[in-house]
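Reagents: none. Just compute today. Helix-turn-helix transcriptional regulator.
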Amino acid sequence: MELEWRDLAFHREIGAVIEALDSAQFWTRLTRALERYVLFDNWVALRFAPGEAPLVCAESPTPDGTVDAMFQDYLAALYQLDPFYIAATDKPASGFVTLADVAPDNFSMTDYYQRYFRKNIVGDEVHFNYMIDARHTLAFSLGATQRYGDRDLAVLELCAPWVIALLRQRLPYETFGATQQQRGDAPAEATMDAATDTLATADTPAYAARFEQVASVAGRSPLTAREVEVAMLTLSGFSTRAIAEKLTISFETVRAHKKHIYTKLNVNSQSELFALFYEAGRQGG
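Predicted 3D structure written out:
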């Protein structure tokens, strides 16, 4: 077998990643190995679980070293509109996932996309997911200011088997929950058991509490469980027809639910509905 210098450099990088499995340098080494072949602008490693805010393993540093305020908004509430979070908690599975795989049909028209995604990630995003168990997924996200090309996606998918295998091997050494600014240079030495000491109940989604809080303000009428579901799917980017298919109800029933939601919450548009949800999330997060 003949190897080119690029192959040798790749093998050295992979060796460095494996060597760092039990150290605080693991995520940096992993991103360095991948950025030799695909350009991306930001990255974050998270643990997803139904009904819980994502827990942070590590994140790319901001240029000035300060806390990313928009990312804090994501962790407080906006994660509930994230198509990657929704997909990972709805049907958890290990694998390589692109934005096109999970984005709802009206995703680019949502306020979440316009006010958060475009400003924070800007162009595109992919995930390497490792399904820890039926409730938990370790997600490694790569965000780019431009759309990934076919070559980029092909290369990342080719890397997926060893990246996901490394995520599995990393798990026993991972510390969940603290942001990069909070952790500093502390070694990652917590176990999965310590990370799962407190679990929210999956039966009560966090967004239900958000809408309960919204309804309690200024004497608004509370939403039914089905109306909360429709509201969240609407904010996430599902069209009326897509909501009907997902919930196995009629198109007209979805329209009726939307009318009731707007009337009860005294809003006239999806943007106003998003503003209520966003503010409640910031206050409650």
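The chain has two domains: 5-195, 206-284.
Action item: order primers for follow-up constructs.
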